Structures are given as structure tokens and as C-alpha cells.
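Deviations from the work plan: none for this task. Representative record:
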Amino acid sequence: MSILQKIKNTVRSRSIHVSYVDVGSCNGCDIEVLACLAPRYDIEQYGIYVHNNPREADVLLVIGSVTPQWVDKLREIWDKIPEPKVAVAIGNCPISGCVYARRGTLTSPPVEKYIPIAAQVPGCPPRPTEILNAILSVAPLIFKDYEEKQP
Amino acid sequence: MRSIVYYVREFLRPEWIRKFFFAKTAPLETPSYFKGYPALTGNECTACLSCMMICPAPNAIAVLRTRDGWEPEIYPGHCIRCGLCVEACPEGVLSSGRILDVTRRDGTAFWSWYHLQVDDNLCMRCGNCCVSCPVNREIDPQLAGSGTSASDEVIMRVEGGRVRILHEEKCTGCKTCETQCPNRAIRVARMVEGVQIGEAET
């Protein structure tokens, strides 16, 4: 492993930039993501920064069951994120649609139909600790030795 | 000037420097009272399906047949961890956080019954519901054809050209009447009310 790769690994492990997008949910999971930012959980002590700008993000947190208006825009946001990138589904909505998975609702879960999802955090809403653990455990899997893993 | 000196001295204190660089918030622990996904306690499930009927999330819980009996299964992608199945279960098959302790301490329970409603605008008085009802058949074997009955003990009967519900409390919620109704005029609804045991006595 080259020295350059080692430096990249070290830097990437302490600098994970997060962007979150709500594609139609009740906002409960948004509030749990915000609770991660608050001093009680303090997401920045783990080197995770929330910018909410897909152009500089590494991790995309997808919240909510997908509404028709979001189908093309979610794909656009995903394409804007530079490689290496990873998407994490937060809450039940992107996994199954949760309480919106009924007849007559304008949602089309799951979100895996539109963008590749690396990790899912079930819960309605999930605890902030669960969100943090998911980001911290999935990020090294994707970002460590990223250049060497490329074919 | 004095305040600057004060701050410089304050920031050079070893304790302050240690705190500034090595402070960490509390570790990521889930508290013991947190309502997680319901877990099995080992009590025997009687397949009364109270948990499935009270569950507000679609497809979150299913009571499955195992080799020796029945067993509820929770699906994490669907479950919203409200804990209603834990509270509704009469056998205490599931447990989550401190819900079982709290319900035992407060003596709370769910009381459910079936509510029958006939929409007179849709109903065409065919009497299918009264005839098909298995409870009606048990009580009055003579009940046939038009749905009229001489017995006052039946759940419902055709009376004066319309369906009249007499004994709603005997309904078992099988919904045979609903499936047999050609106009979807009769509806069976399961009503649930939270009650506190001992409240009625005082």
C-alpha cells in the first residue's frame, strides 16, 4: 500500500461529509438526524460534517418514502455526489414505506429502486445512536483503500 | 489588559487544555428503558392475533406457525416500535423495554369489541348477512331465506323491511356477513379502548 493511500485512508476516516435529503416523510427522521448534530450526540466529534451540499458530500442520508416528484430529482442528487460515495437509508420509509405503504398513497418505496443503498437503518424514527453507528460502520467499508479496490 | 492576562492564564491551565483536546461526550449507549423491537419472552402464543389486529404499521408483525405452536415475528423494516402489540397480548408473549412492567403496575389493558354497522342506503334487505352469520345459525337454526327470525337472541335479523342489529356483543369478528353482502352495506369494525382494571370498582 502506497504512502499516499495511507494518508488518504487516515484523512477520510476523520472527514466524512454528509448530505441528507428528505424525499417525502413525516420529518421525524429529519429531527433525529438533527439530534445527531446537537451536543448530546455531537456527530462532529467522530469527524462527520453535515453540509447538505451533494457536491461535497461522501454520504447521502435518504429519508422518506419516495413521492413521484422526487423520483428524477433523487437520481440527480445522487449523480452530483463525487466518487467515492455511499447512500444510507434512514428510517422505515425508504425501506418499506412504513405507514405510507397503503393503497391510495402517492409513494413508491423502496428507495433502492432509484439509487443504490449501502446500509439501512430501520426504525420509526431510528435512534440518533443507530444513525451514527450506521454511518461510522459503513463509511470505512467504502472509503478505505478506495483507489486500490478500483479495477 | 487585565482580562487578556486572565484569559491567557486560564487557557494555559493544564486541566483546561486537557479538557479542550480530549473531551468526549457520553458513549453511544441505548438506555435500558428504550422500547426496542419486541422480543419473545418464551410464553406460549395462543394465536389470538391481538398483536396483528392492533398493529398500526402495515406488514410489521405476523403470527407464524412453527413446529410446536405459534410464534409472532416482527419485521424491522416495517415495525415502528410503538409497543402496542406488547400491551395488547394477553399472554405476555412479547416484551419491549419496560412496557410489561408499567402495564402490570398500572393495571392497564385493551378492551375490544366488534361494532356492526349497516348503511341503509346501500342495503337491499336481502338478508344474506343474517343467514350467513355462523353465530346466528348456532342460536336460531330456523333462520333461513329472508333473514327473518322469531328469536330475540340473534345478532341481527331483517325486521320491518330493514336489517336490525340486536346483539352486537355476540359478534366474533369473522366478517362472513361482510364477504356475503352484495352491496358492501354491512361493515364490521374492531373497536379498541384502553381501560384500567379496578377503575370501574372505585
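Chain A touches chain B at residues 39-42, 45, 92, 95-99, 101-102, 120, 122-124, 127, 129, 132-133 (CB under 8 Å).
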